[in-house]
Amino acid sequence: MACGKAVGATQRVILLQFLIETMTLAILGGVLGIALGWAIAEVVTLLGLITATVTADIVFLAFFSAALIGLFFGIYPAYQASKLRPIEALRYE
């Protein structure tokens, strides 16, 4: 964060870096959540408790929701961090 600004990175570049990190984490969380949900659905079905089905529209909805939530909760902190001076950013690390 602060190192980028110390070597001349613009506010836009720092914001983009934070948003890429946020979206990467959101996408990985979405994929992990989908895999875990599918595995739980399979186990529940195999145990005969209920018949659980995983459909493409549910998978898309889960993935889209994870990406949207990650983007929503990543924009404000990314914007705030991109406005910090290097010395202020280092003070909070």
Tell me briefly what this model is.
By secondary structure, the protein is mainly alpha-helical. It is 82% helix and 0% strand.
Question: How would you characterize this protein structure?
Answer:
There is one protein chain. With 93 residues, the protein is mainly alpha-helical. It contains 4 helices and no strands. The protein has helices at 2-6, 11-47, 56-83, 86-91. The model has no long low-confidence stretch (mean pLDDT 81).
Structural class: mainly alpha
Inertia-based shape: elongated
**Uncertain runs:** none
Instruction: Give helix % range.
Output: over 70%
Largest sheet features: none
- Tally of alpha and pi helices: 4
The fraction of residues assigned to DSSP E strands is under 5%
Mean residue pLDDT? 81
Radius of gyration: 19 Å
Counting DSSP E segments of at least 2 residues, the number of strands comes to 0
Seen as an oligomer or otherwise, the chain set is: single chain
- Cα(first) to Cα(last) distance is 10 Å
Order of helices and strands: HHHH
Notable features of this structure?
93 residues; mainly alpha; 4 helices; 82% helix; elongated
Helix-strand layout with pairing:
Elements: H1 2-6, H2 11-47, H3 56-83, H4 86-91
